[in-house]
């Protein structure tokens, strides 16, 4: 993997932004109020232990996201091997998912996701909190909000967009609605964390037909 990928994460980290998308799909910058001291090297097992502590001590999703942001940044700047732990996007699907951590009956999933240029995800929510860190490429997020009317209870309206660059980290509340697409001619590689998903409440939205179906 080109060395520039690692360099982007490390050299730009101090300038990159954190964002949180709330349940109304409004995205706001988040500026950490304090800095943490981490052991070196900060390995995956330490990251998982710290995540477990956050999940046990912080029940509110919004605060969880805030507390996990610095853990993700430290992991990606310390454990360079993670930046190479992904599968090339499928030629048929245009994307790939490589599972880094998943344990039965434990409310946490960690993935590396790759998207091909020109591939756009469905418009969807996650029905859980989530955090996405951009490792390589650029990714455009389009944000949508439920705006039902009498004829269309599942109508949504686009309310914003934001382009993520390497080193950016964004957190999503469970009812945030978005779609993603690479915004350059190269694949995007992201490091993704999700809590326990309520699949009955996870939807794919059609903004033309004003419909929602389980996703």
The number of helical runs is 3
- Overall helicity: 10-25%
* Secondary structure category: alpha+beta
CATH class type: Mainly Beta
- β-sheet strand percentage: 25-35%
How many discrete structural domains? 1
User: CATH-wise, what's the superfamily?
Assistant: Jelly Rolls
Number of strands: 13
Stretches with pLDDT under 50, minimum 5 residues: 1-14
Order of helices and strands: HEEHHEEEEEEEEEEE
What is the correct CATH architecture?
Sandwich
Question: What does this entry look like structurally?
Answer:
There is one protein chain. With 215 residues, this protein is an alpha+beta fold. The protein has one domain (17-214): Jelly Rolls, CATH 2.60.120.10. Helix content is 19%, strand content 34%. The protein contains 3 helices and 13 strands, in the order H-E-E-H-H-E-E-E-E-E-E-E-E-E-E-E. It has helices at residues 3-11, 44-57, 61-78, and strands at residues 18-21, 27-30, 95-102, 109-115, 123-124, 130-136, 139-146, 156-164, 169-172, 177-182, 188-194, 203-206, 211-214. The strands form 3 sheets. Strands 2-1-9-6-11-4-3 form a 7-stranded mixed sheet. Strands 5-12-13 form a 3-stranded antiparallel sheet, with no helix packed on it. Strand 1 and strand 2 form a beta hairpin. It is globular.
